[in-house]
């Protein structure tokens, strides 16, 4: 952008029947071009924002990341041509070198940030040189419609300022670019390769719009709009007079404190709507009070990106559509919330038809065909990004033309509700706009606290009276829960049996990890979710557990919270938008993000816990993938985390009670020391003869480790028998069936017995803390048992449920060299409890089984060191008893896929018969 202007020349049209070079503009681009051409010296279509980086930044790497992200979207720099179908765009590569941002230093100014922003606002006030887009002076003379400046405003304090014209990219596209810049920068400074570009080309938008333009769907959408708004009068100006829009708007910002934000959220949640619909409802009441009309007509921004792949295009697609909401003095906030939700749902279903077409059909007598009314921009974009551990706070500066008044809402990184009022300076003095902003925020917060009160009872606020007590100009300090006991656990930890187990397993110990996929409510916010994840690591020492290895000697320590990546690294939580309706595109994104989360684990520095938030937008439930190193979690750990996370999130979001009911966590270091003591107790040593006898006989067969394998899932229902407690009936039924199956298949056994390594859930006395506290012991089952009874007796004979074998082998120096080791890896059998959702946290819980297979982080399991691995997840069956889901993993070196499937089904059917027989 520059300060000079020349009239936009009209390029020659293509010959009849020829489309001309390039591709058509998107519908949004065509509208912006027409508006800019009609007022060539108008600068209001310039938009801008900055990313504030507070922390050490490699400025050259950041400049490279910006240039690389722009290079991945070459259509952002284009030449205008004219085809028979209208204006067209032809991408023009930058031949003058990388498009790195300029650098600026204002740190010597009295107010460095204000000095930087004054320069930027001066840039935003300059109209673009569209004439150079149509007739560039040279092959590289096309001006950039998107640019940036990296400003140093202090020590370890930078602003990455971005400005662009709406012809190039809209707010959604700018958010895509920002996320990619952060991703490229983080990969560069960490010495890792960035993933492939997530962008889809602008042709995805153009082709989707072309298919829609003459479709029956568009005709139906337009008919739906004209029918819904039939009889709607064209509203007059809010202040009784109009004025041409200025080059730049005047802005007033109000941030609701946590109590007021919580009131809005609670009112929205109680009505089953989002915070955005609460803002829309308040805007309708505010507008109706200002005009005296019984209803409000609002101009609401819409993404207009519902076609597959279009959510991944950094370009311009934004739409503005009319929303009519009745708002009378007898209406309550709950009434308006319901209406706002209904209108928002209608808008989402019909958002692709252009607002100008709707305005032309409804109000043909008004020139310009602009959607009338105050603008409403509900910005769901992430307001905090991760730049290799340095948080980047996104702040909007200008959002486009403002005829009269625009109300924008977003969330701050701290989770507070931010309201921006932009106004035409010809209609509002700064003090008048300040009063409007304060009044609107007071209306929103006060009415949300009393959602059943009629509007007539808040007339003081609606009439522009003093602000309510819930509104303040700045954010309150973040909520901080009491420091848990786990927070005080730190220092060396006696190796648990699970560490010895992992050391003996084939494959890389660093890569061993597990994951769960949770369903989470729509409209989560990044800042409170990040704080909740960090607090989990403060509560649970295993999520701060470092693994050190020197000369094949392992040791572990719990880091302090201030040194633990799960607490301090913003990259512990990554957000990925997945509102794209294209399942293939979503699945590819999910797979890449999950793989990156698994590969980012590094137990040497205690990076053992990562969270990936798949954000489906403000209206659809999202998913949260949790990935942890294998030494930090077992099935009970995941249940603890799933129960605590929603409580902590609600607390930090300002909508929940103090999380004292979670109880005191921790106890990992004490449990590890206790196991070492038990291993040397007389009671445990007296078990030695039993385990020695178990290990006698032929040496266990050795199977070569094999990665991957044939995977299948089967289900068996097992009744819970009456009588005294004993071995779990699921273990008895499945192991007896597997021993019978193995009798005729030498590849499964060692010639005499079926060697099985059983991993069972942690004992009842284990602490309520994360960690791999499950127990493993070996058994050798008789081949072809007559039924389940011989297996039940053998399992019941194991002293203390088999918990002592690993303790004697690893934790007692006198018995560690003796014959108390496991009976051979053979078949690996693991039973675990199914994950359940917390009853008191609506919208939180395990994702449906088998959903999003790409969320499997991959590479987290060691090679298969036996013929088959069987993981059994046990849940309560609807009719009583247990429902066991058996996930089989067969060695591809020993079995083909068809045989693996047949063995899985046959063994499961036999287990069901054994279970039914008791």
What's the gist of this structure?
The chain is of the alpha+beta class and 918 residues long.
Structural class: alpha+beta
Work out the number of β strands: 29
Strand order in the largest sheet:
5-6-7-2-13-12
Q: Which segments are poorly predicted (pLDDT under 50) over 5 or more consecutive residues? A: 1-20, 463-479, 819-824
Note the gap between the termini: 80 Å
Number of helices: 25
The coarse silhouette is elongated
What share of residues are in beta strands? Answer: 15-25%
Mean pLDDT, as a whole number? 85
Largest sheet: 6 strands, mixed
| Alpha carbon gyration radius | 32 Å
The share of residues in helices is 25-40%
Task: Give your account of this protein's structure.
The chain is of the alpha+beta class and 918 residues long. Helix content is 33%, strand content 21%. The strands form six sheets. Strands 5-6-7-2-13-12 form a six-stranded mixed sheet, sandwiched between helices. The chain has a six-stranded mixed sheet with strand order 8-15-14-11-9-10, with helices on both faces. A six-stranded mixed sheet has the order 23-29-28-26-24-25. α19 crosses α24 (804-811) and α22 crosses α23 (788-797). It is elongated, with a radius of gyration of 32 Å.
Task: Outline the fold blueprint.
Blueprint lengths: L22 E2 L2 H12 L7 E9 L4 H13 L6 E6 L2 E6 L10 E4 L6 H13 L5 H5 L11 E9 L2 E9 L5 H19 L12 H12 L2 H13 L21 E6 L2 H14 L3 H17 L3 E8 L16 E8 L6 H17 L5 H8 L12 E4 L5 E4 L2 E9 L6 E7 L5 E7 L6 H20 L9 H4 L28 E3 L3 H8 L8 E8 L5 H14 L5 E6 L2 E6 L6 H4 L4 E5 L5 H17 L9 E7 L6 E8 L5 H18 L15 H12 L2 H4 L2 H7 L15 E9 L10 H14 L10 E8 L14 E8 L5 H10 L6 H8 L15 E7 L11 E2 L21 E9 L5 E9 L6 H21 L1
